[in-house]
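Case study.
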Amino acid sequence: MSQTTKNYYLPGPSFWPLIASISLFLLAGGFTMVLNKIAMGKPLMIAGGLSLAYLLFGWFKEVIGESVSKYYNKQVDKSFRWGMGWFIFSEVMFFFGFFGALFYARNVSLPWLADTHGLTGAHMVWQNFTAAWPSAGPKLVLEGSMKPWGLPAINTLLLLTSGVTLTWAHWGLMKNKRNQIIIGLALTIALGAAFLYLQYTEYSEAAFTIKSGIYGATFYMLTGFHGLHVTMGTIMLTIILFRVLKGHFDSHDHFGFEAVAWYWHFVDVVWLFLFIFVYWL
Amino acid sequence: MSTTTTSHHDAHGHDDHGHPTGLMRWVKSTNHKDIGTMYLWFSFTMFLFAGALAMLIRLELFQPGLQFVRPEVFNQLTTLHGLIMIFGAIMPAFVGFANWQVPLMIGAPDMAFPRLNNMSFWLLIPAAILLLASFFVPGGAAAGGWTMYPPLSVQGGMSIDMSIFALHILGVSSIVGSINIITTIFNMRAPGMTLMKMPMFVWTWLITAYLLIAAMPVLAGALTMLITDRHFGTHFFNAAGGGDPVLFQHVFWFFGHPEVYIMILPAFGILSTIIPTFARKPLFGYASMVYATAAIAVLSFVVWAHHMFTTGMPVAGQLFFMYSTMLISVPTGVKVFNWLATMWKGSMTFETPMLFAVAVVFLFTIGGFSGLVCAILPVDIQLQDTYYVVAHFHYVLFSGAAMSIMGGVYYWIPKWTGHMYDETLGKWHFWLTTIAFNVTFFPMHFTGLAGMPRRIPDYSQQFAEFNMISSLGAFALGLSQLLFLYVVIKCIRGGAKATNQVWEGAHGLEWTVPSPAPFHTFETPPLVK
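After joint prediction, the assembly is written out as follows.
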């Protein structure tokens, strides 16, 4: 590849898109079968998962290889910035949908179920139902809800601190202070892992499940997807740490690091909204 | 389509890429033109398939009573016709245009992320397989309507899961594709091409891409809640657990209404390209066109509940959504006015693309007006779920989106293939399509106003004549599209040699490259004055 830095880098033919397509097909088809209790489903899903892992590993390896070979000029770097930024925006909209569901359930449909104005006729179906939050609906009484000032508050501290340590690592990167980068990143990863451990503890001690009416559904959907994003972010940070150890970045050229940092801060902000609207208010 | 591409610019370092031939050229492609071609062929295949489903629907509705399909099969036909036309035919066709035209129009060497671009395409295939295969699983395909409202979509069988995952995969494809388009437009424009010098088609796609990025993740959320309600015991859409089926409708239409504009804004872009060419005048009111497109996009996020006027909402909410919906007609009116003003005193000729464009302006406006009728709350309570709504959205989606796509194909196919299409056959296709379309859908205004409900396989005797007319029109409409296929294939195989500019009145960078456009274009960015 005799790529000069003057032109925009255009990759040659690639098999990765087809592998992506096959992986998702296996995953979606397999999951459909698992959900409908068809025996073939599980092996298909495992094959899909493995192929997806191979895809992510291989494709990113190729991109990292191109990056360290300096195929990417300033314009390509800018493309990555635009791309990552709007990818994070799409993630914001994904969470927005679930937050919207939470607000609608709490502030619109529950008062209607309780029918404080006698307009909907729900009082004839469910007498004496009061719209309190947490709710599991007219038929179920919810045993207990999450209290904000225990584990969730500690988790908030952990994630906020991890944002600080990550920024500290970034400062180290910009000043070429290798130890500062490595310590900062390692601390961030440790804080992320601690968060996930505490979240796991909270789940296993919870008095309610995802089946516990609308409260359980919104709680686990929102915190669950957030936890999944923290997991992804921790894995991404770990890969960045390995890349730092391999010396992939310098003080000018480190968008891989910044992209993961953006992602981590996004996950952080989502948590703040979760803490306020799911745990606290 | 252009199989011989030899004009590499060796000095620019791409000569070592080459490209594989045969099947691998398409599978491993990182070329925006090849990927655009694949998108367009995929879209056309799905268009014919979903059109065949519509033929079955009209066959059943040819006469009152049940003749050909069982009611549950009829429901599957309407559901899959909608899903496949929207996600398989209309949207991929516009992405195909974006792939071909956006880099050519802004003077970019390719899309910003060529490999992701190909991934966006190849993700369509598993989604299409999931949707098509769902006809053959126990219980048949999804039958609750393309909107997949609970509780039907919670109770349905395995095919609902397949449709949900198909839409998830299509969502990934759309989001990745839009990020690609946004990045390309912002980062890859030729020097000198400021935002307000961009061709209108590029502008409409930029705004469409934003709609996709904002709306598709919300659909993913709605579908995820549907899956957990179906299989993991959540109560999002179940009042017995404190949830609400109407919640799904809110989340769905928060996606669904922007989706409507996702399917029409690129069509506006095509019209704004074709009309100035054949009126031989620059587009009237370019800046106002840009602002109107943006205004439509912003408004599209605050009108969603006009799809739900009859499903339970406070009057204040209904009024808000009624007025916000009516507001959309202002920027849309600006656009229609600008198209007419572009034609005003132009030296017009009526080649096939222009015929389609003029017909779209006229017929889409009819669809816009019937939309305004539906937006009026007290009227909509009568019209909800009648054939009037079916007439309305086919006037905007078929004679708006689909006919713009056809016009766009005739307009750009000389650039893609290097040959002129057969003008006589193109005009035949246009007239057959336009007449058959109106014969099919215009009577539905009447049956709808008279109260014929949609998505029902049988109807009262009083609707018999109109339905027979609709069905005859539909069969003619379906058959006419085979002529389209023939014209396209004929054009690929040969025909009069197209010049670089193709159309006398065409302006823009895409008309400065040879026809057919070489495999790589604008490897050194052109300078735009």
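Observations recorded in class. Residues 1-5 of chain A have pLDDT under 50 and may be disordered. Chain A touches chain B through 70 residues (CB under 8 Å). We will return to this complex in the next lecture.
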